[in-house]
Every structure is written in structure tokens, then in C-alpha cells.
Amino acid sequence: MTDRYQIFSAELGARYSSLPPRLKQLADLVSSNPDDVAHWTVSVLAQHANVQPSTVVRFTKTFGFKGYSDFQALFRERLRGLASSYPERLQTLRTPDETTHSTIDLLTGFHRAAATSLNTLQEKTDPLALDQAVDILASGRCIHILGLRRSMPVARYFAYLLLKMTIPHQVIGTESGMEEEALLTANSNDAALIISYASYAPKTIELFQKLEQRGIPIVSMTDNKHSPVIPKSGVWLQVSEADFHGFRSNAASVVMVMTLATAIANRRGSL
What's the CATH fold of domain 3-83? Predict the structure, then answer.
């Protein structure tokens, strides 16, 4: 995440309580959907926030931007930073004199990102949605788990927890190239947990759609309401992970799957 974006986010948080209602609506939207703001036109952003385009322009100028293009450039800059390669991300850790951060500096940075993720999870998790998610997953004959790329370790840890609690499950992975065959045993008596964040893995979206076509009840863990893996049931859990120089935490995701696994076991009487 760029320093400019971090500065803007901090200012937005500091001034939020003093903003007029319409500008608060915009603040909520851009904070929750930074990836989308990088692509939305001013009219699309206004439509999603239920305000006039002129209000969007007023919002940008309130925070010192010349206009919407200048404002959007900040979000595009952030997105480019997240999409950079790992060698490029490592380069951002270098200080102006070309030395690297000390190891304790790295620990501090990653700790802060993880703490931010966990605090956001606590503040934004909808208790009703969480209970609905547990109901769906606990009712499944078998829980199918899908999480690729950065989400794969989280999916595997969820599977490990279910294994220890003797809850039937299946990880849908791509290592063997047999993911399509794995779906053949799935039916409407099962349930599925999809874990996917921007930029969403195309294979995850494809397999998610196949699960929906088979009528399998789905719960999604994702980062915003415009995510392509929101199920038709509308049951999803918002998990937003902070990053440190482009290296994104999985702290909130791990806590969420620990919560789900334990609650599912309680609901099924496995504990």
C-alpha cells in the first residue's frame, strides 16, 4: 500500500465524524471498496453511494484533490502496488540510502498490519451473518473448501481444524488438476466455504460458479459486497486484510476460519 494512500486513509478516519451525511456515505464506500474505486467512473461511484456525481467531486476536493481523476489516481497507484511482484515489494522495503529495514522494523510493520486486520474484523463482522454462515456450514453433509493463491494456506488450515474435529470435508485444490472431478461428489446436501480476495483468482470464480450451478449452499469469505464470489443466498463474511509494503496479512482470515470451525463443531456436537 502506498504512503499516499495510507496518509489519505488516516485523514479520512480522523475527519469522518465531522463529515456531512452524504460525504460519510462516500467515505464508507471508498474505504470498503478501494479496488473498485480504482476502476469506477465518477457516475458509477455516485450510483453505488446513492449520491449525485457533484457530491463525489465535492468529496474529493474536501480532501485536497484537484478532482475525481486526481482522487482516482491514488487508488490506482495503490492497486499497482498490490499487484507488484515480490521482488518489487522487497525493493520498497529499502530506505532512501539503499539499506533495508532492520528485522525488528519488519516485525513491527507486519504486527501492525495484522493488528489492523484483526481490529477491523472485530468491528465489521455482522453477528447475524456469522450465525447464518455457521448454520449453513454445520448443516452440510460434507464441507467443500475452496481457496487458491494467497487464500490457500487459510483453506488448508480450515481443513486441518475440521479434520481434528472429525467433520467431513474436502479441499478443492488445483495441484492434481482434478478439481473438476472433485466437484462430482458435491450435491445440495453439502455446503461450501469459498475464500477469495482481490484480485480474485479466475479459477476460484470458475469453480465457485460450478458449485452454485450444482445447488450447493455456499458461504463466502471475501473483501467487499461487489466481489464476484458472493453467493446467490447472500451469505458472506467480510474479511479485509491490511498490508505492509504490499505484503498482505492473513491474520483476520485465520481467526475467522478458527471461529467457523469451532462454532460448526459446537453446532454439530463434535466438541
Answer: Arc Repressor Mutant, subunit A (1.10.10)
Express the helix, strand and coil content of the chain in percent, nearest 5 each: 60, 10, 30
pTM: 0.68
Helix (H) or strand (E) holding 56: helix 53-62
- Is residue 145 left, alpha or beta, with left meaning phi > 0 and alpha meaning psi from -120 to 50? beta
> Measured on CA atoms in the order 152, 154, 156, 159, is the torsion positive or negative?
negative
* Main-chain phi, psi angles of 189, to 5 degrees: -85, -5
CA distance 34 to 27: 11
CATH class of the domain whose range is 122-268 = alpha beta
Q: 139-189: per-residue pLDDT in tens? A: 999 999 999 888 999 999 999 999 999 999 999 875 555 666 778 888 999
What are the residue ranges spanned by the domains of the chain?
3-83, 122-268
Confidence label for 195 from pLDDT (cuts 50, 70 and 90): very high
